[in-house]
Each structure stands twice: as C-alpha cells, then as structure tokens.
Amino acid sequence: MTHHDPWFARQQAERAWRRYAEEGATDGVRDEVGRSWERSAAHLAPDRTEAPLVAEDRARERWQHSPVRAAVAVLREELDRVVADGGFIAAVTSADGTILWTHGSSWMRDRAAGVHFVPGGRWDEASIGTNALALALRTNAPSQVFSAEHYSSAIHDWVCYSAPIQDLRSGRVLGVLDLSTTWDRAQPLGLTAAKLLASNLSLLLLATAEPIEPADGMELRVLGHPSVRLHGRPVELPRRQLELLTVLSLHPEGMNLQALHAALHPDHTVQPATVKAEVSHLRRALGEDVVASRPYRLAVPVRADHLDVLEDIAAGRLRRAVSTYAGPLLAGTDAPALRDHAHYLEAALRRAVLNADDADLLFALGGQLPDEVEVHERTLARLPDGDPRAAIAHARLTAALA
C-alpha cells in the first residue's frame, strides 16, 4: 500500500479490515496481507491487545549470544540517526520473530511497551497476527504493513518497515531489522531505510572472521542416533518427548490433542490426558516459547534431518541425502505416524538411488539398509570388475538372504 496520503490510506485500510472482520472478505487488501490475515485467524482473534512475552532473562541471553549483536554495535551511529530523523523505534528479532533489541525515542518506547514491542516480545504471525516483521521472516524479503493492514487492532496506529538480516554464506535468515512509527508518520523511504540497514548488517556479518552459526531455533536429529540442540545447546530428552518433537516437526501448522494422540499411540490404552501431560513436560523442558499450544506446534525454526533427506531427494541431491540418512527414524518406535513416515522416507530414498543406478550411491545406501536385497544385488551389478567393495556388497547380500 502506498502512503502518499496517509489519511486516505488509513481509511481504506480500516474499511478493508472491518469488512474482513465482519464478512471474511480479503479483496480490499494486498494479496500477501489477505493471506496473512487468514493464517492469523487460525491462531488468534483480532482483538489481541499485546504480543506474548518470553522470560526477560531468556531474551537477554539470546541477544548476548546473537551474531547480530556485534554488527548492530558497529552500525549504532547510523541507527541512531535514522531513528531520530524518522521518529522510529528500531528493533532486531531472532529468526523465530522474538524481539531481542530495541532502540527509539521515549515517546515511541512508551507506545511500544503497551503492545509488548520490547525485548522478549513474540512478533511471529501466530502470536500477534499480520505485521511486517513476521512477513519479512516468512518471505525472506522486505515488507511493510500500514495501519489496519495489521491483523490485531491494537497495532492499527502503527506503520512498520522490516527487512531480513541474512547470513550471506548460507542464505539463512538470522532475524529482521524493523523500523516502526505511528501511521501518520508513514514515509516513502521507510522501507528503503530498513532494507539498507538490514543489508549493511548482513555485510558486516559476512566480514566476520568466524562462520556464522545462528543460535536461534532447533536442530532435530532422529535418523540413527537421536539428538536435539536448542539455540545452539544440546538438550537431553526422553524417548517419548523425542517422538513428540518429531511428530510436531511433520506438522508445522500445528495439531490438536486428538490428532497428536492418534499420531503417537497405536491403540486406545493410553488416554489423551496422558499425551497432554507429556506435552506439558516437553514445554517445561524446552520453554513455552518453543512449544506453543492451541494448536500444539513448534514455535521456533526447526531443522530436522528427516526433512532434509526428503528435500535433498526432491532436489536431486542424492549424495547428500544418503549421507544424511544415518539410520532408521527413531528405530523401534511404536508411534503410528512415525512408523509410517519412517517407511515412506526409506522407500523414497531407496527408489531414488535405484533409479539413479550409480554404484557409489548404491554401495553407500547398502550400508544403511542392510536388509534390502535389491540394493545389494544392484550394487554388485554396477561395481566395476576388481572393485574391492564388491566383497562387502556380497557379504551384505548373503546376510540379507540368510
């Protein structure tokens, strides 16, 4: 939405928002805003008055360990100038939409505090609805949201300009840089300023001597030996909680209690209340800002090895897929959804490698799928004469046939 006449633009936005609230129609707004309203409606009502907060000490610790912190310090003079000239409050978020740092004039800080636009505030779409920070994170592109384009009515007096901060080595989004002010101060150069600042932060990160490994989010490994890392730190979890995490990683949109119960338990001997208690234990172990409720979902960025394998297969990166597949998914699990997914994953990888008909890939996969007679037979057929790996492939075939 352009803001050459902010008063007129605000009236248009308010009319479109009221129509959506009353009729569910989104034809009066930009497509990306309409789609965001619909996603937001699945999680919260538009009368949400403030963003949820994570513990202050947790937000402070995450900022202390954020690779973006040092880059912000270098750009502080430029940030101060932009904030003063535009009457903005500036913010930097983590990759999951949690605000980690803010800086602005006292009058904007007071307004920001009222809606929890402060360190620890959760500004992802599911927590506070449509906003520029959430859209920039979702699309990995600059975004602006004006007045009643915001889903939550409490933010209708705001205009926000956001742009992603990236690790240019990997393309991974580390967070966003946001500039926000009141709607009547909307300006054509607001988004340009946010883009330039975010770009400069990304370039400063690229110039650092050490590779950037963002501490935000979860790394879930469930193929072979399972492990979990949260915000860069290892977390020890019992088997059932690992199963819970894995099921939730398959459903980023979230699950209700009944669906989660059916996914985890093969019969009705375990009551839904038990699953609810298991989720409560998991939320205490990881934090309520990590595992959300209503619906149950993982509220931080997740990188899961089982999903990486499927992505690599789809992209034709079979060597990486075979390398990542370190063993069966949570071997021995009795959770129906995980048994089905494990079979699907194994079948997809097996078929992709057989279709590729490459001796190296076949031999590597044979080590991970010892019972697959067809894989071993094809390996022996494709290995060149005299290749010492043939002896191993033959031994694998003999064992599989025994």
Your description of this structure?
This protein is α+β, with helices and mostly antiparallel strands and 402 residues long. It has 2 domains: 201 residues, 2-Layer Sandwich (Beta-Lactamase), CATH 3.30.450; 140 residues, Winged helix-like DNA-binding domain superfamily/Winged helix DNA-binding domain (Arc Repressor Mutant, subunit A), CATH 1.10.10.10. 50% of the residues lie in helices and 13% in strands. A hairpin with a 5-residue loop joins β6 and β7. The model has no long low-confidence stretch (mean pLDDT 90).
Can you tell me the residue ranges where pLDDT is under 50 for at least 5 consecutive residues? none
| Outline type | elongated
Q: What is the fourth-level CATH superfamily of the largest domain?
A: GAF domain
Most strands sheet: 5 strands, antiparallel
Strand content: 5-15%
CATH-level-2 architecture of the largest domain: 2-Layer Sandwich
The termini sit apart by 69 Å
Percent of residues in helices comes to 40-55%
Rg value: 25 Å
List how many beta strands DSSP finds.
11
Structural class: alpha+beta
Strand order of the largest sheet: 2-1-5-4-3
- The overall number of domains is 2
Mean pLDDT: 90
Give the key terms.
alpha+beta, Beta-Lactamase, Arc Repressor Mutant, subunit A, 2 domains, five-stranded antiparallel sheet, four-stranded mixed sheet, 18 helices, 11 strands
Q: What is this structure, in a nutshell?
A:
This protein has 402 residues and is α+β, with helices and mostly antiparallel strands.
